[in-house]
Amino acid sequence: MSTPPTPPSDPSDPGRYSGQGAGGVPGQDISGFNPLEPPHGIDPTPAAAVAPPVDPRLLVRQEGFRGYLDEFKRKVRGGELGSLPVVIGLVIIWLIFSLQNSQYFTAANAEFIAYYMVGLGMLAVGLVFVLLLGEIDLSVGSVSGLAAAIYAVLSVEHHWNAWLAVIITLLTGAAIGALQGTIFAKIGVPAFVVTLAGFLGWQGFMLWLLGSTGTINLENKGLNALFSGNSYFLGGQIIGAYLLAIIAVVGFAAGIFTQQRRRKAAGVPYRPTVELLARTAVLAIGAFLVAYVLNQASGVPNNVVIFLALLVICDFVLRRTTYGRKIFAVGGNIEASRRAGISVPMVRISVYAISGTFAALGGLAIAATTNAAGQAGADPNNLMMAIAAAVIGGTSLFGGRGRVWSALLGILVIESINAGLFMLGLTLDIQYMITGAVLLAAVVVDSLSRRTQKSSGRA
C-alpha cells in the first residue's frame, strides 16, 4: 500500500504550489495560488452579504406613473383583475340605458336604485362570507321571508316592542344559520343539501306563521320605520348627504394613513403619501358627487346609510382581524388551515350564522319596501339575485377570494339593469335573461382569471 506524498517543509520548494515537486499533485497546475485569496472565478462575497433579489412589485411606485402602468399590466396578465370587469360593465350599462332613455341619469332614478338595492344587498353580504369558504347557502331567501314573518307576528299581532322584535328576529336568523352550519361542519352533510332542505323547510314555516291570509301589514315603527321609503338621513336635509360624504372621506384617509405609518414603523413596504392623497381625492370626488345627486331628489335613504355602515364593519372584520384571515385561510386550503391550528368547524358554523343574520336583516328591509310581510319575502328570485350580486361583484365561487364590497357592486349592477329595463317598459323575461347573461359572464371571467393565475404561479 503506497503512502501519499508528504509536502516539503521548505517553503521555497517550487513543488509546494506548482505540482511539479515532491509535494505536488500530478496533473494540477496551481502555480500562483495564494491561500489568502479566493480561487479564480469564485465570488468572494459571503452568501449572507449578497443582496436578495427584490420583487419588482415593491419598486414600481418609485417609478412614477410608468411604474403604476407597468404594475397594472402585470396584474392583468397575471389574472388579478379585481373589480375592474364589474366597474367597466357598470359604466357600459349606464351608457346604454342613458342613450335609450334620457331620464335614466336623473336624481330620482339614482335614489330609486339606491333604495331598492339594500334588501337584496344584505342577503348578498351574508353570501359573500359563505362563498369565501367555497360553499353555498340556498336558504337565505326563505330565511329572509321567515324573519319578516316573525317580526310581523311579534310586533303587530302580539304587540311586542318593535326593537325587541327586531332583536329576536335577528337572533333567530343567526340561530338558523348556526344550526345549518353545525349540521354541515360537524355531521358532514354537504352544505348544498343542508341549505336546500332549509330553503324548503323555512319557507313552509313562514307560510304557517302568516296564516291563511298570507300577509301581515307592518306598522311604521322600529327598524321598519328606518327602512321605509320615506325615511331619510337627518330628515333629508342637504347637509345630511354632505356630512356622510365628509365622514366617509375622513374615515378612509385616517385608515390608509394609519396603515402607512404602521408599515413604515415596521420597516415593510408602504404606499407613498402622493398615492394616498390621490386615492383620497378620488373617493372625495365620488362621494360628494353622489351626495349632490341624491340631494337633487330627497336625500340619502336611511336604509342606504345602515347598509353602507354594515359594509364598512364587515370589510374591517374580513381584512383587519384574525377571524377574517381565518375565513380566507379555510376558503383557500382547508387542510393547511387545520395544520395551522384553525378550528375549521367553528369558522364554518360562525360564517353560516353571519349569513343567517344578514338574511334576516335583508328580509326586514325587503318587507319595508312593501310595508308588509308576505309570501313575496321568500321569493326564490331573491336567492338567485343575491347569489348573482355576490358573484357579479367579484366574489369567487371557488372560495378564498372576494370582498364585502362585491355585494355592493354586484347589486348595483343588477338594480341598474332592473331600473333601465323598467324605464324601457321591458318585461321580466328580458330582465332575467340579461341578468343571467351577466352572471354567466362574471363566472367565466372568474374562471379565466384563476386559470391565468395558476399558469403564472400566483394562484
UniProtKB/TrEMBL annotation:
Residues 1-11 have a biased composition (Pro residues). It is found in: Cell membrane. Residues 1-48 are annotated as: Disordered. Pfam families: BPD_transp_2. It is a multi-pass membrane protein. Its main location: membrane. GO terms for molecular function: transmembrane transporter activity. Keywords: Cell inner membrane, Cell membrane, Membrane, Sugar transport, Transmembrane, Transmembrane helix, Transport. The keyword Lipid biosynthesis does not apply. The chain crosses the membrane at residues 81-100, 112-133, 160-179, 191-211, 231-256, 276-294, 300-318, 349-370, 382-400, 407-424, 430-448. The keyword Transmembrane helix applies. One of its GO terms (cellular component) is plasma membrane. Part of the binding-protein-dependent transport system for D-xylose. Probably responsible for the translocation of the substrate across the membrane. This is Xylose transport system permease protein XylH.
